Amino acid sequence: MEKVALFATCLTDTLYPDTARAAVRLLERLGCSVDFPLGQTCCGQMHFNTGYRRHAVDLAGRFQQVFAGYDAVVAPSGSCAAMVRDVHPRLGAGTPRTFELSEFLVDVLGVTEVGAYFPHRVTYHPTCHSLRMLGVGEKPLALLRAVRGLDLVELPAATECCGFGGTFAIKNADTSTAMLADKMRHVLDTGAEVLTAGDNSCLMHIGGGLSRLRAGVRPVHLAEILASTEEEPWTPASR
Amino acid sequence: MTWLGSPKFPDAARAALADTQLRRNLRNATTTIRGRRAEAVDELPDWEELRRAGEAIKEQVLHHLDTYLEQLEAAVTRRGGTVHWARDAAEANAVVRDLVGDAEEVVKVKSMTTAEIGLNEALAAAGVHAVETDLAELIVQLGDDRPSHILVPAIHRNRAEIREIFRAAGLEAESDDPRVLAEAARAHLRRKFLSCDVAISGANFAVADTGSVVVLESEGNGRMCLTLPRRLITVMGIEKVVPTWQDLEVFLQLLPRSSTAERMNPYTSVWTGVTPGDGPQEFHLVLLDNGRTATLADPEGRQALRCIRCSACLNVCPVYERTGGRSYGSVYPGPIGAIITPQLVDDPRDEQAASLPFASSLCGACFEVCPVRIDIPEVLTHLRAEVVRARGRDAESVAMAAAAWVFASPRRYAAAQKLGSLARFLARDGRLSRLPGPGAAWTSSRDAPVPAREPFREWWRKNRG
Ligand code: SF4
């Protein structure tokens, strides 16, 4: 049995608790024992990316302390996992073994069929940090393809950035919006009912745009899809 | 190197985004070249090793730049050329001005370095007209415009616009067929090649041990410039030197595939000093610093000096694709511009330059394609930190410090979550469509998420804690 610590990420903890609950349910179903160290807060990515290095160094240090005792840390976010794995060492903080959820499932647990059931038409957006910093590649798609009932449709220009970029979305709001508009057009072109990704931050951005359009496409984090079963199906809640 | 009076990036971008013609021209051009580059690169099974070789050679050069430059100077001199050193734009322009002598017109083969120092303007002030001979450069020059791309400075123009620019400048073209347009330019340029006595060029590389200078171009006009006139003046950034001919081989593979998606560059010209009775009889090499040694002193930022100006990072950049090159307010646009311009400007009070490192979503597409593996996102965040440090205390830094203070304690963090969930009262049918303060920029185009009734940690504490 793998003992894992869940790093929920500040965004998911605060705004999308369903995703974190789904991650726990999924990992336990696959035989892991999951802990959620309550000392955790934020990996420091927002500070680092906006130019506040001193604060980022402090937060990286505190992250490493909180998670020091665990064999593996799992985060339902490609960009936070990349922050911990790639950037923390550059800030002088040692790395506990940290994985993005799909990496953990496929590489560590060695599963692609997780017993999920999700009877919806779904399209997948590979978020930039999952794709380029972590290199998760086909793993999320392999997981999705194994979900019973799920109709996976390809997203055109999938690898293009959605325009979120953290504080970029505010500092360069017009450019961010132009990028978002193209991403939404591609999502709508697929005819999918559900847009999924491994990062709630990008889903918050694209989903916020789709909601403004009253487009009727629902953003759902990958963890929630993989946690969904016939007995306990996914239900729309916080979004 | 930045254009005087250019607005900060977000403001320039807003104006550019409103220009739908520009966006269409750019999208068409970048989408095509992106696909072709990927194909050209996929053909080489050892692309990753080539990239690493390119990176290693450039790093080696940067670590021993003084040695290689002295070698280069000795070799050029040995072969009958003259080397001039210029600390900044003013010095370089003065040197070139003197070398031009009493010529009234000079031909130029495209050179970003001369654009960086504003050479054409400096020459014009001295009564010398510089004729750009690269087709795209010529379009920019005749249109009294600014370049918007490293390789294709007129990428933002379509055929109809180009014909119009030609007509206004007195170059008649019967239609806007690219061949007809090129023919009109050719006739115009041929007269210049045959009448000009002085040529000015840039350089892609210079080989230290032989003193050879290399220019890559795809129209052949450069070759005319480099062989016909009697006097040749080359202006080159000091980081362009490579140790040996063998090193050149790596770049002659990396550069064409990255920039034009060609397997081999159409016109690669190499010249070494002067050859009596053949080609230019006088050769001057101006070695330009202009902020480069200052950049070299920064261990995190200096990797930007590896750049071979292939423009691959521009063509994949989602920000560049929408805002165009002129929004960057500099001769160096796109991702490389966002990291090289602020370093060369090296002035923390320059607000325009300070806005450039933030002109990126950090998506990483630029790093992925860069043939010399410049980690552009890494340099961007490094430069952002410099900007923040120079700016001192302001509303943003206070907010960031407050957030860090909250994140430093789980107890304060949980309390802030409770406070945040008050925003639920602002929501209408499950949507937050208008936020105050900095949130307003978010809700201008996106609904904001409604904070959860119960944060995850609350749930964990109650059910599992
Ligand atoms: S930074 Fe890299 S990709 Fe961009 S122009 Fe320079 S060499 Fe090319």
From TrEMBL, chain A:
GO molecular function: oxidoreductase activity
Recorded GO CC terms: cytosol
InterPro entries from the UniProt entry: Cys_rich_dom
Ranges of residues in domain Cysteine-rich: 4-84, 122-206
PANTHER family the record matches: LACTATE UTILIZATION PROTEIN A, UNCHARACTERIZED PROTEIN YKGE
Official protein name in the record: L-lactate dehydrogenase complex protein LldE
